[in-house]
Each structure stands twice: as C-alpha cells, then as structure tokens.
Design brief:
548 residues, alpha/beta, Four Helix Bundle (Hemerythrin (Met), subunit A), Rossmann fold, five-stranded parallel β-sheet, 19 helices, phosphoprotein
C-alpha cells in the first residue's frame, strides 16, 4: 500500500476513534439514567447488550481499561438477569453509578490493540529476475531458459552490483550463487546478511530469493531457511526446476484480492475492522442489518464472512445457518467475531455452520492475519478442486465450462472466439525413454509457458494427458495461430535433462474459431480435427480448422 493510502487509513481510524468516544459517553449516560428510572428485565437486557458491545470494542479503539471494566459489569448483569426476582436482586442505583463511571476510561486513549504498521512496500516488477552468478557460461545457460518463459534476466557478478540493481527496481525473484563471494561459511553469512539488509530496507520485501550451491547439507538448508530463502538448488542446476518454482511463487502472488463481508450491528466497530482489513489488502463491505446479508452477499460475492454473534432480531448463529442453506455459500468461510469469552458457548457457536471464533477486542494484526489465512485456505481448496495438480491449469470439466461461458459471451458481444487444442508430440516416447518424472516436467513446462504467453482474459486447461486447451476471447483464427506458433517455437527450444541426457520436445496444435462454428461442442470438434491434421502433416506445426 502506498504512503497516501496508509495516511488515509490512519486518518479514518482517528475519525472513528473520535466518534466512538462521543458515542460511548452518550451510551453510558443513557444506560445509567434508564437504570435509575426502571430496573425491569427489558432494561437489564439492553444494559447487558450494550456492555457486551463496549467490552468487545474498547480495546480496538485504544480504551483497554474500558473493555476490561465493561466485561466485569456485563458478567455481573448477566448474573442478575438469571436471578429469580430481578426487582429485589440488586441495587439499581449502585449499578447505574458503576456504569456511569465507565466514562472515566474515555480519557486519552492508549495505543489500540495493534498489529503490523500501516506502511508502504515497494512492489516488484513481474518477470524481472536478478541473477548473481560469477560463472559466465552458467549464467548464460540459466538466463537463456528463463528468457524462453518471458523473464527479463539481469546478470550480476557481485553483491554490490546486485544491491544497486534491486535498489532501482525490486525484482520478482533474486537468484544467488552462494559461491559468488569465494565460498566458505563466512562468505555465505555475508551474503545472507546483505540480502537481509535489503529486505529490511524494503527493496526485497515482496521478492522471492533462491540460492544455488554445491552443498546439499541440512545445515546449509537450515541457514537458508533462517535467512528467509524461498528455495535452495543444488548444482548442477536444472533450469526447469527454477522455472517451476518461479511459477509456483507467481501463482501464490496471483491470488485474487480477497473480499470480506463484516456483519455487525456496532457500526463504528464494524467500520474500524473494515478500515484495518482494507489497509491489509482486502475489499470490504459492512452490513449493519443482518436481514440484508444475503442480498449483499449475492452482489458482493465475499470470500469470507465475519459475523457478530449478538445482534438484535437475528443472532450470528442463526444467520450462519441461514447462509449455509444456500448452495452457493456452503464453502464460504464464516468466522464469528464476538466479545463472547465463554469457551463452551464459542464451541456451540462454531458447530452452527461457522469455521472459527475470534474474540473481541482483537488486535489489528491478528484480524488481518486470521482473515488472510481463512481466505487463502479456501482459495487453495478451490484450486485443488478446479485445478490440475501437476500444472495448476484448469481441469477438463472446468475448461469446458469456461468455453461454454465464453461462447455465450461471444454471442452477446458479437466478438470472435478461438479455441486451440495443443498436444505434445511423441509423448509416450518421452515417458518410455526418460521416465515419467521427466514426462511430468515436460508437461509442467508447457503449462508454465502457456501461462506466460496468454492474456489475462484467456483460459488454459489441461484437457487430458498431454493435451491442452486454450480458450481465447476476442481472437480470430489467424491471431490464435500466431499465438500457438509462438508457444510451439518456444517449447521446441527448451532443453530438458534426464538420465544424464539432454532432449527437446515439440507440439502440434489445431485451431477453431466461432466465425466458422457457433457452439462449444463444434469448436472442440473442429479444433481436434485440425490437430489431427497437424499430426498427419508431420507434427511440430499448427492447422486452422474449418466447419464440416
């Protein structure tokens, strides 16, 4: 987040804190007056509800003593309500005085329960890799492979050169040969320390760092892990292994900006939590009325729902059951965010369709971390369900579903849509000659290459075995063929290693366009026929299909 956004978030938090102070003074004064006027069950229920809110919110705004005192009074009132004869069970004037005294805790607030500072971090440049490799021939070999996958590689020969480069623009990845300073424990420690300094300065805060070494010992790997390394590769280096790890890191960073729905009748606290989450990188909407939740969910499509338990007219547990009645929301994480501290009640609540329970007041850092962990876990589960485990591409059923959706969109927009069916040539021979692990590496490499070459609007799937499908909206057949041939040529240039041998592989492709055929089934059939023709005509080529 840039400095302007950080300052804006802090200003919003300060404004909410001022509003909270004004509102809380009014609330405690009103509760004290009502208790002195009447001490019936309805008044006590309202007093307990308001004390519960204060117990859960004070700490978030810096009034930790207010939270503590309100919690004690809440438990006291709860006990009074359970008494057989409320009218004679307590001193109403004494309780009113204790509630009025809560205002004494609204002096100068201390620091709110805090987490990470709202600060800016320098964004990395996609596909930008800095390689520190003193061996020129090895540097050229690694850079050539990375270049085929669209990476801009800057080769450096010293730590000083590297530091100057990343100071200008933080790279997506840093690859460092641990022998660059002469080898030995002291030089390795200097490298780790220098990289850590760059991290502390913010230049590498979002970059992945890989190390290269001849040492495969647990001791070195432990040292690298302590230095926050993303990976350590043992020489001789297989460039494709680095490509795979770079792609995994990119997929992790490519997770969408998650959306959180906060449902809480305490609007100031809800807005406080929303501001913290937005500063943490989330899109957030707040719902004060629980009855509006489903309508907002249908429009907002949240990745996480944060629910208060105690809300008027509809409790959080009841709302969680209502949400789970809808098939669309069966897998959406629901987390209670409540001031309830009774463990048994928390366990009962989480059995009502929720995934976790967070206790208010909660630190800003805890809230952001818990929300991110839940969203990322749900995202990963969705990826496992919809994505091929080897390549990370869409599975057969999902890519066909995407094609059907894009065909409908193409008809509405009257823009062309193309489909590419690509198949690795003689793939069985690769498996038979070099082994299935080598075959898996070839498949992963093609998947990574395709991801690098397509647009954000395009869809890629592993259609089956060594066959892939590309769905290309707003793309005519000739443009689709140019893309297929670009991928084909780059794939052909890759060098794979297995069983002490180097080998390369080719692919063939067939293209179909909606200007020739109109529906998804026909597009697949025409592209398949064109692929078959490419195989028949010698392989390592592409063909454009026509309607039968």
């Amino acid at each position: 987040m840039n400095e302007q956004r950080a300052a804006q978030a802090l200003a919003q938090l300060e404004a909410l804190k001022r509003d909270y102070k004004v509102r809380t003074r009014a609330v405690v004064e009103s509760l004290a007056v009502r208790l002195q006027q009447s001490a019936d069950e309805d008044v006590l229920a309202e007093v307990e509800s308001q004390l519960h809110k204060l117990a859960g919110s004070g700490g978030s705004f810096g009034y930790t003593e207010l939270s503590r005192a309100a919690r004690q009074l809440e438990l006291k009132v709860r006990g009074l309500r359970n008494a057989a004869d409320v009218s004679t069970a307590f001193d109403a004037d004494g309780l009113a005085e204790q509630i009025a005294d809560l205002g004494q805790h609204l002096g100068t607030p201390g620091d709110p329960l805090s987490g990470p500072r709202l600060s800016s971090r320098r964004a990395t440049q996609d596909n930008f890799v800095v390689l520190l490799e003193p061996n020129q021939s090895e540097a050229e070999r690694l850079a050539a492979t990375l270049l085929q996958f669209g990476h801009d590689v800057r080769v450096k020969s010293s730590l000083d050169e590297l530091a100057a480069e990343v100071g200008n623009q933080p790279p997506e990845a840093l690859i460092i040969d641990l022998d660059c300073e002469g080898g030995g424990q002291d030089s390795i420690r200097r490298i780790f320390d220098r990289v850590q300094t760059l991290r502390d300065d913010g230049d590498l805060s979002q970059s992945v760092v890989f190390y290269l070494s001849t040492d495969d010992s647990t001791e070195l790997r432990l040292s690298a892990a302590r230095a926050a390394a993303s990976g350590l590769f043992v020489k001789p280096i297989d460039p494709m292994a680095i490509v795979d790890r770079l792609e995994l890191a990119r997929q992790h960073r490519a997770a969408p900006r998650f959306k959180v729905l906060v449902v809480d009748d305490d609007i100031l606290l809800a807005r406080h939590h929303a501001t913290i989450l937005e500063a943490g990188g989330f899109d957030v909407e707040v719902v004060e009325n629980p009855y509006a939740t489903l309508d907002v969910m249908a429009r907002f499509r949240p990745d996480l729902v944060l629910l208060d338990i105690y809300m008027p007219g509809c409790s959080g547990t009841e709302l969680a059951r209502v949400i789970r009645m809808h098939e669309d929301w069966l897998a959406t994480p629901i987390v209670y965010l409540s001031a309830e501290t009774d463990v048994d009640l928390q366990l009962t609540a989480t059995s009502e369709g929720a995934d976790d329970f967070l206790t208010k007041p909660i630190s800003d850092g805890h809230l952001v971390a818990a929300a991110r962990n839940r969203c990322e876990r749900a995202y990963q589960m969705s990826m496992l369900i919809n994505r091929d485990s080897l390549t990370g591409l869409l599975k057969h059923a999902r890519i066909k579903e995407e094609l059907i959706n894009e065909v409908s969109r193409s008809r509405r927009s009257r823009l062309p849509l193309s489909v590419v069916m690509a198949d690795i040539d003689h793939f069985k021979k690769v498996n038979d000659t070099y082994g299935h692990p080598a075959g898996d590496q070839v498949i992963r490499a093609l998947g990574n290459l395709m991801r690098q070459r397509v647009r954000a609007s395009d869809r890629i799937g592993r259609y089956g075995g060594e066959e892939f499908m590309l769905v290309l909206p707003n793309c005519r057949a000739d443009s689709a063929q140019q893309l297929a041939d670009d991928i084909r040529q780059r794939f052909k240039a890759l060098q794979f290693a297995a069983k002490n041998q180097q080998f390369s592989v080719t692919l063939s492709a067939g293209i179909a366009c909606s200007e020739e055929v109109a529906d998804a089934t026909a597009l697949i059939a025409v592209a398949d026929e064109a692929l078959y023709r490419a195989k028949q005509n010698g392989r390592d080529r592409s063909e454009i299909g026509t309607a039968p």
